[in-house]
Structure formats: structure tokens, C-alpha cells
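[recover] target loaded
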């Protein structure tokens, strides 16, 4: 049961060698039996978002999040990341709009990060890697009865991805950072209440969206990804606390929880849509305007 919960509860984490973002392949986390775990699907995640190849979709409205901080339950270290989990029995905390045809309920959020500031994110933008990435995981409660069912099905999940870069201290994140030492060890869980994750969204509402997969087993292709264009900033001391967590349980040889990301996957026959007009096309348009005028 615990195993199932770990696999299903942890939306994505994987510390191994990754297209230039190298961690020793000898250090495979137990969740991955080997790099060949990749099932060869056609809609796997994460991907490199190529800005010039993304297609502006004028009908993509901004996403709308409505989170009730009273639904925040606890935080726990599942051995791959730390998860803040929410009560998903009702529609009190949902995301809707954008590419989503109906509201999706918030289940949990978690992060991926690197051993240092040179890598850590799962997605990249024109090959640019960020030191960390936040994932807010939601499930389609109109189509499916449970999170576990939605994971396995078409349009089952919606994940908001937010890039994290090094910069200013993030005051709202600090409440979370302060509690992390209490979940340092694998399988530790502690009460964590009244946290509204919308405080972690960037102020700019622009995003890219594409069809993809979970980035941990079972790697099912059930995810509508919504990747926010603008990163949020955290400072070095906050990332340092992320890196002080452990993959290991009490009594085991300590292994720091770092590089918990999956390698990039091929885009294959997919289109990344953007909710905004790419700046490059805008400038071309203006240039053409000037020449015509
Ligand atoms: Zn994830």
C-alpha cells in the first residue's frame, strides 16, 4: 500500500543522468530500475520547450486557481521529494480555465531541485535549465472518481509547473522552508496547515501547455501540463534547506535529496501551445508594419 502511495503520490522524481545535467548513473534511486524504465510512449515528460516552435493559441484564457488553505493537510518526505498534500474530497481547491474543460482538484504539490544551482528543473526553455521546479498536481474530478483512477486515464491530471530561479528571498515560501527540517528523513510526516499555494504562482499569467506524462513511474500519459513562463525567485538559503533533506530513513546511511528530476524526453509529434504571442513574432510583425508603412 505504501509503495502504491509512493508511486502514485509522488508525481515525478528521478535522480539520474540527464542530458548534460549529470548525476552519476550509478546513483540510481530505487524508484528507477535503470534508464530503460522509459516505456517508449509518444507523450512523455519532461520536455525542452522551444519558444520559437511554440504556437500561440488565442483562445487560451488565463488559468484560474481557487485554493482554500483550510484543505492543506500535512507535509511528508516520500523518499523522492517532499509533498504538501490537500484534502481532495470536495471542490474547495481547484484549478480551471486555460486548456482545461472543467475544474481539476488540487491533490499535492512538490518540487524538483539540483545538487547546485546549475541544474534541477525537469522542463527547460530553449535548453535553459533552472535550479528547481515546482509542480502543483490536480486531478479531473468531473471525469474520474479518485486521484488514483485519474492518474491512469486520458485527461486525468493537470499539473502547473513553475520554474524557480535564484534571486530574492521568497517570504511566503519561508513558512514551508521552516517546516522542512521536521521531514528530513524518508517517510516522516508532519502536520502543515493553512498554506495557500497560489502565493507560489508568478504574477505573470502567461504559460505554455502541452500533453505529457507523469515523470515518475507509472509514467502514464495522463497529464495536461501548464508551464508558467515567468519563474519565481527564491534565495540560496531556501534552496539549501531543500538540499538538506534526505532520501534515506532514520538509521540508514544518509543520502541527500538532490537531483530528483527525470531527464528530458523527446517532443515527438506534439505541439506546445502558448497563451501569449512570442516576443520574436511580435517584433517581426512590428518590423513588417514599419516597412509596409
Ligand atoms: Zn513533479
Amino acid at each position: 500500500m505504501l509503495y502504491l502511495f509512493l508511486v502514485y503520490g509522488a508525481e515525478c522524481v528521478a535522480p539520474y543522468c540527464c542530458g548534460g545535467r549529470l548525476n552519476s548513473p550509478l546513483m540510481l534511486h530505487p524508484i528507477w530500475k535503470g534508464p530503460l524504465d522509459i516505456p517508449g510512449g509518444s507523450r512523455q515528460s519532461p520536455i525542452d520547450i522551444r519558444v520559437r516552435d511554440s504556437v500561440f493559441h488565442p483562445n487560451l484564457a488565463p488559468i484560474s486557481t481557487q485554493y482554500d488553505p483550510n484543505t492543506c493537510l500535512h507535509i511528508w518526505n516520500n523518499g523522492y521529494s517532499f509533498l504538501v498534500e490537500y484534502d481532495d474530497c470536495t471542490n474547495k481547491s481547484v484549478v480551471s480555465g486555460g486548456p482545461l474543460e472543467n475544474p481539476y482538484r488540487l491533490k499535492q504539490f512538490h518540487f524538483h531541485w539540483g545538487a547546485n544551482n546549475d541544474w534541477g528543473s525537469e522542463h527547460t526553455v530553449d535548453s535553459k535549465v533552472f535550479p528547481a521546479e515546482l509542480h502543483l498536481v490536480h486531478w479531473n474530478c468531473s471525469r474520474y472518481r479518485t486521484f488514483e483512477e485519474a492518474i491512469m486515464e486520458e485527461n486525468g491530471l493537470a499539473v502547473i509547473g513553475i520554474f524557480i530561479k535564484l534571486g530574492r528571498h521568497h517570504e511566503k515560501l519561508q513558512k514551508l522552508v521552516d517546516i522542512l527540517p521536521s521531514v528530513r528523513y524518508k517517510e516522516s510526516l508532519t502536520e502543515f496547515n493553512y498554506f495557500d499555494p497560489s502565493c507560489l504562482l508568478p504574477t505573470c499569467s502567461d504559460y505554455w501547455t502541452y500533453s505529457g506524462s507523469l515523470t515518475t513511474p507509472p509514467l502514464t500519459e495522463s497529464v495536461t501540463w501548464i508551464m508558467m513562463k515567468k519563474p519565481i525567485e527564491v534565495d540560496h538559503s531556501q534552496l539549501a534547506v531543500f538540499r538538506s533533506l534526505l532520501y534515506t530513513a532514520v538509521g540508514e546511511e544518509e543520502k541527500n535529496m538532490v537531483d530528483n528530476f527525470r531527464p528530458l524526453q523527446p517532443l515527438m509529434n506534439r505541439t506546445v501551445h502558448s497563451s501569449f504571442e512570442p516576443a520574436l513574432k511580435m517584433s517581426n510583425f512590428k518590423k513588417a508594419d514599419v516597412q509596409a508603412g
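[recover] notes: Residues 1-26, 282-293 have pLDDT under 50 and may be disordered.
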